[in-house]
Design a protein that fits this description.
alpha+beta; two-stranded antiparallel ribbon; 4 helices; 15% strand; globular
Amino acid sequence: MKNTGHSFISYFKRATSPLVVLKFLTERPMYGYEITEALKTRSQEKYMISILYPVLYRLEEQGYIEISSTEVADGRARSYYSITEAGRAHLEKTWQEYQEITEIFETLMETWI
């Protein structure tokens, strides 16, 4: 089998990072760096998203988040992202799907281990 250079963990993060971002935004509006720092802290530096802004832009394009405000701090514009109602519905649906497929996968793997 040819090595693609991508690990299981990188594929997993790519698939789940939008859910993590949406979950964080259910707590309050946040700006990009704040999301990155929350990920670092809450995961004890084990779950990092190296390219967060493409995730934010895609979620915004899909209508799941929106820029709720922009402020200038230290001469830099800081955009705060908020989850939309569509984003909340997507998060709920996708979280349920994740839990279902995880349970099925664990059942399948139990017979092997």
